[in-house]
Amino acid sequence: MKVVSLTQGADLLAGCGRVSVIGCSGGGKSTLSQALAHRLHATYLCMDREFFWLPGWVPRPRDEQRALIVEAVKQERWIMDGTNPSGFDIRLPRSEMVIWVRMPRLVCLMGVLRRWWVYRGQTRPEMTPGCPEKIDADFVRYIWNFEKRDAPIIIDKIDAYGRDIPVLELKSRRDMRRLLDLLKASS
């Protein structure tokens, strides 16, 4: 995995057309991705909404998910927000950069709780219509164990499908704000 510093990442990002934003739920991937899409004049693609979920939290069949991802990555300018590693073999070869929002688990849990409170009983804007915001014990366990269980898989997938792609790890809200400030200053 080719990790770059925050300033290197901002410099590289200014010239990128295709960026994958990954990380644990509640870390701020969607908020950051939407801000990046706006600043970089790219299409914002939320994987949960575009590829993974049908109304009522019904998972889209995997072959349909993959076909949709194949079509989406053909575009020249996109910010793709989502971590599911099952599509890394499709999107990483087309990505020019990976931003890994790698927040501490308590920050992610607080983010998910805040999001649930704001959107309770409703579908948040970046989610598939008909998928109201929810939180349950399995989701909390997923967040709590993300670094231990999912991070090694992500690293393996990046090494397999995007070894030479720069990876910028953002480990705090301050890092996220700094990245956006650096991009704003360079434009």
Description:
Keywords: Kinase, Transferase. This is Adenylate kinase family enzyme. InterPro entries: Cytidylate_Kinase-2 (IPR052922), P-loop_NTPase (IPR027417). One of its GO terms (molecular function) is kinase activity. The chain has a single domain (2-186), classed as P-loop containing nucleotide triphosphate hydrolases (Rossmann fold, 3-Layer(aba) Sandwich). It is 50% helix and 17% strand. α1 (6-13) packs across α9 and α2 packs parallel to α9. The chain has nine helices and eight strands. It is α/β, with parallel strands linked by helices and 187 residues long. It starts with a strand and ends with a helix. The strands form two sheets. Strands 1-8-7-2-6-3 form a six-stranded parallel β-sheet. A two-stranded antiparallel ribbon has the order 4-5. β4 and β5 (58-59) form a beta hairpin.
